Amino acid sequence: TERTFSIIKPDATKRNLTGAVNAVIEEAGLRIVAQKRIQMTRAQAETFYAVHSERPFFGELVEFMTSGPVVVQVLEGENAIAKYREVMGATNPANAAEGTIRKKFALSVGENTVHGSDAPETAAVEIAQFFAGNEIV
Ligand code: ATP
Ligand code: MG
Fold it and tell me: What ipTM, to 2 d.p.?
């Protein structure tokens, strides 16, 4: 079994879609083993997306991620990282497969409803940025 880090982004919390997104996650067989709703600070968003700091959309990305509450989560299951990437769908909702979270709910490549870790190393770092070990049950 494996853990991945998930964020329900501000476009989704704004539209009251937390439960709808969680339903798709649970339907896929992933278990929500930690969850909290927070307002990300600019510093937290900049640290979280540091790998994208040289990209032209970085400023816009940090603005968006701090524009409203997010729900940070740890998901657990068999191949959780790859499975959640599949459930999320392509970064750009225009390319996302039918039934995926981004196909159902995302507004644009920027306002794309969810984040999911892309590898075991990033999952571990991302989980540790937002959760203490004893918060994951
Ligand atoms: P995430 O890391 O959020 O799970 P991802 O791995 O599918 O998404 P990345 O390439 O890591 O995509 O990009 C991180 C995030 O940056 C995207 O989810 C999206 O919100 C934003 N982003 C990516 N490309 C663009 C773009 N061209 N314009 C605006 N925002 C973008
Ligand atoms: Mg990514």
Answer: 0.94
